[in-house]
Amino acid sequence: MRWRSRRIGVLVGGAFLALFIVVPFIGAHVPWVLPGTLDVVNSTGTLEVLALCFMFAGVAVGYDMMFGYTGLMSLGPVLFFATGTYVFDIALTRWEWALWPALLLTFGVSLALAVVLGAVALRVHGIAFAMVTLAFAQAFYFLVESNPHNLTAGDTGLSLSYTRLPSFLSGAVSNTRNLYWIALAFLVIAYAIVWLVTESVTGHVFVAIRENERRLEVLGVRPFRFKMVSFVVSSLIATGGGIVYILVIGTAVPSVVASTTVTLSILIMVVLGGAGTRWGAVVGAMVYIYLQQYLDKVGAEPSFTRLPAVLRVPLSEPQFLLGAIFVLFVLFAPGGIASLVVRHRSRRTLGAPALSSLIRKV
Amino acid sequence: MNIFLVLTFSGVALGAIYFLAASGLSLIYGLMDVLNFAHGLFMTLGAYAGYEVATRLPSSLGAPTLIILAIIGATLGGGLAAGITELILIRPLYGKPISQILITIGLDLAVVGLLMGGFGSTALQIPVPLWLIEPTHIGGLYLPNANFLAIGGGAVVLAGLEWFLSRTRYGIIIRAGVENREMVRALGIDVGRAFTLVFVIGGAMAGLAGMLYSIVFSGDLVSPSQGDSLLIFAFIVVVIGGLGSIRGSAVAALVVGLLQEYTSFYIGGHSGWAQIGDLSTVLLLAVVLEIRPRGLFGRVA
Amino acid sequence: MTNAIEISDLHVTIAGSHVLQGISLIVPSGGVTAILGRNGVGKTTTLRAILGLVASSGQIKVLDHEVSSWPTHRIVQLGIGYVPEDRDVFSGLTVEQNLRLAESSATVQYDEVFSLFPELKKRGRQRAGTLSGGQQQMLSIARALLNSRPLLLVDEPSKGLAPKLVGEFAGVLERAAEHSTVLLVEQNLSVVRRLAQRIVVLDHGEVVHRGEARDLDDPTLVRQLLGVAGAA
Fold first, then answer.
1. Which of C47, C90, C94, C143 to probe the B interface (max B CBs under 10 A)?
2. What is this model's ipTM?
3. Rounded Cα gap, residues C157 and A36, in angstroms
4. C84 assigned to some structural domain
């Protein structure tokens, strides 16, 4: 039974991947699915939205490995995401480095941060762990906002300078297309990494840590190393996402890039899709970002302004709708979209009972 | 020296507000294992409730009366919001603490979004009596009156909370429940009612904190995201003080408030690094967690 | 009412471990029934399952009510006094407050409790956390005896206590058993011999012997059921 659903999963995933690869060549007009000026499939706006979807999907699946599989509820993924964005941005814009050195620096800084934070935070469990990660992420936010040595430009926002980037990444229309494919490639790479790790023995230890860490210790396994691996890999993926973000969006603003809202959004994406399933995180992220962008554009439509305020206000605020949908899911479908789609839950999918023991196990 | 005293006064006022926000959070976590991410929302709603009271009641009542009613309104508003949240969203998820945490995240997102849609993300101004904006001249110092309000509020609540927790049956149930929820049940007591009560009390204090913060530190402005900005410091105070401990929240709140004010001025002022005050609180948290992970007055998990 | 407790096919799984594997037992009204067994066989878990403190499947009838799906506080309100294995007094509260919490009916018997444990009356204002082990045990038992309850669940009352205290507590329980049914988990056989009329022996989550307390007079049986350590 499991093999069959696996094969179906691979086929469906492959089909979607093929579709997404060719999207930039599809000039079709799809009015209902994509609102307003985005209604052409390969318009710049649509490609940008999809690129964001892919990028967050990659970050989300990385987070799922840490939260869904290993049971570590970190409240600090935004720290690594923002590190990716800001270090890369600074290297290219302020110091005018070339692409590869900038990438090396960004991942290097992120790796160092992940190891340090992991060493500190993983010594404690549960709420304390969540708090340490939250604190560090918040500290980074404060740091970035304060514009030290005029590096980050604080609230004004730091625009990415494309001068030292290879030409295929800059320029008008072709830019968006290539960035779209880069975002898609990021998702594929992130997913592949997560898939490989979670399917390996290491991945099984992750699940064992999540379910009953004490028993592992009794068996002589040292959970700390594995938790470190999970934490560091997940954080590096988030950094990759941050780099893709700045390439696609072009500007870094602290309240958007470095605030705790990003962390909470990632958490929501993963739970919405179905924690502990990998593909759930991808679906959750894509649905979340898509809805967010869609609702944002829809809210500005003229037909909307004619609705009475009681209906118009809630419906025109994407944050409200997303939050409300999430609340409904937590109440009635805690296993997320994945639990709705897959009838027979495999042991890896987290339903409500397993979720509740999560934080105590950590 | 003058500046030091003024800063201290300010720090104590800030600490009082942190205490109001943190103690509720601490009790809720201590008793229910719920990390209430909607606590910031209760603070914001309290401030909005206060704003509505202050602006919708006839101005013939006079500014001082209006502001007192507004503060009461904020407290009631926070409590009401919290009570409804507990009954509708938290109770159904009994026994699933992670789901409970997640639902508070979703609630916060949704309602803050609603506030942004309804009130706009521009801040609203609460009308306050002149007295609150003015300072009092004591021995060569100008101490803002608003700070007195915050400190007074914090002290009153602290005393009231201590009384409640040691003299009333429900207060004792709550303290026992924070220690050992299971045993309370095994004595035939329905902890569910205590849960709702703790949420309501926490929410009421949060509403008061939000309102006071608007008056004292935000120039009488009310905005949808103010509670969430405050929430991070409330969390820091709760963890430093020790989860479930009121005394811990009080001490930690004072320390954090003072630290923020001093660092912000003495270090931030010189280097032009405005956020150092905020950053220092995070550093303090990291240090405390290293040395004593359960916080100043917390129990071993 | 003939039986205080009737358990049928009780299964309990904790953290992936099948602790109770189909327990069935009957506790008749009146007197003392003792549950015996080595460490870890599921004795405490049985008590906790009766109280609804752990999830279980199977049928549990307490004082003529089917309580398998009831919340703990409702089960206890049927008239159960519980003395847990680790005393579980509230250390942050005073002795007085601990007792106040245990009040449930109008017929609160402080006089009786204080006559049994005069120490507690003396130390009313003292924080329970500063009491000695023996005094905490007194408090734990006093809590359960405060209201005259028809059923008492007592988990290893002699654990960690000096022999003199053990004797005193056994005497207290003897008196309590005159008007309540007592289900006693105990490893100390001399206490069991003194108090119990009936015994149930568990091993690896199953019932392996049901009988009378005088069965324990047979050393071969004792060794077989409880191992060398059981011969106390």
1. C90
2. 0.91
3. 74
4. no
Q: Among A139, A327, A356, whose Cβ lies nearest the Cβ of B106?
A: A327
Q: Does A212 touch chain C (CB under 8 A)?
A: yes
In angstroms, rounded to a whole number, what is the distance separating the alpha carbons of residues C185 and C192? 9
The answer to whether residue C62 is domain-embedded is yes
What value does the CA radius of gyration of chain C take, rounded to a whole number of Å? 17
- Of A80, A122, A129, A8, nearest to A242 by C-alpha is A80
Quick one: average pLDDT of C25-30? Answer: 91
Exposed, middle or buried, A253 (CB in 10 Å: 0-12/13-18/19+)? Answer: buried
Cα distances (Å, whole numbers) of residue A44 to A5, A36, A173:
36, 13, 7
Q: Which CATH number is C51's domain given? A: 3.40.50.300
Name the residue of chain C whose CA is nearest to B245's CA: C92
Chains that touch B (3 or more CB pairs under 8 A): A, C
Question: Distance between CA atoms of C85 and C133, rounded to whole angstroms?
Answer: 12
- Taking CA–CA distances from C85, the nearest residue in chain B reads B183
Give residue limits of the domains in chain B. 2-291
Restricting to A residues 148-167, those with a Cβ less than 8 Å away from any Cβ of B are 148
Assign a CATH topology to domain B2-291. Answer: ABC transporter involved in vitamin B12 uptake, BtuC (1.10.3470)
Residues 71-100 of B with CB under 8 A from A: 89, 92-93, 95-99
Interchain contact C15–A (C-beta under 8 A): yes
Let me know if residue C139 belongs to a domain.
Answer: no
Domains of chain A and any CATH numbers: 2-361 (1.10.3470)
Give CA–CA dist A16/C102, Å, rounded. 62
Determine the distance in angstroms separating the CA of B84 from the nearest CA of chain C, rounded to an integer.
23
Based on the structure, what is the number of domains in chain C? 1
Mean pLDDT of C74-93: 92
C-alpha closest to that of C98 among C150, C149, C135, C59: C135
Q: What are the counts of helices (DSSP H) followed by strands (DSSP E) for chain C?
A: 9, 10
pLDDT band, residue C1 (cuts 50/70/90) = low
pLDDT tens for each residue of B194-251: 999 999 999 999 999 999 999 888 888 888 888 888 898 999 999 899 888 899 999 9
A327 chain-B contacts, CB cut-off 8 A: 89, 103, 106-107, 110
